[in-house]
Write a structure and sequence with these properties.
single chain; 158 residues; Rossmann fold; 4-stranded parallel β-sheet; FMN
């Protein structure tokens, strides 16, 4: 893949969950001074956002949702301050993997909600692999085709 990119590892980053302090009801940004401040800057600049997550009980992981809770600042900008916090539209995509039974619908819907708050409304269809307890996602031909499709989607300027 060409171009600049940033990987945010939800399990290794220093990002706290939103605790509803309501700072963002009246102020731009977030009162919590952690790694999310850099991610806010990156969200402003980037062209594409890819969300990935294992499925736990048919939902995104708790750590992914904790980071997602910090997008509350964008929601509050629109609702309370009547501002558009991100002017640059982006493309988005979601990759999900699950070990057992379950469904992607709830997780994909949640991921799309997070993408919408980052001004991604042009979103690729979900790419997912189920039954990874029995078969590795790298052996799932449908996933490999989906990854190539996401790359084409992100690099196509339409």
């Amino acid at each position: 893949m060409t171009g600049d990119y940033r990987i945010i590892d939800a399990y290794r980053c220093n990002i706290s969950t939103c605790f509803d302090c309501r700072y963002c009801w009246k102020n731009n940004g977030c009162a919590i001074g952690d790694e999310m401040q850099e991610i806010y800057k990156y969200i402003q600049e980037c062209d594409n956002i890819l969300l990935t997550s294992p499925l736990y009980f048919s939902e995104l992981t708790g750590k992914r949702l904790e980071i997602g809770s910090r997008l509350q600042t964008y929601f509050c900008a629109r609702l309370f301050r009547k501002e558009e916090p991100i002017t640059k539209s982006k493309k988005g995509a979601v990759i999900l993997v699950g070990g057992g039974d379950g469904y992607i619908d709830t997780a994909y819907s949640t991921a799309c909600t997070l993408l919408h708050h980052m001004n991604c409304y042009n979103i690729h269809d979900a790419v997912y692999s189920h039954n990874t307890n029995e078969r590795s996602a790298v052996d799932d031909k449908k996933v490999l085709l989906g990854l190539h499709s996401i790359l084409d989607f992100f690099t196509n300027n339409e």
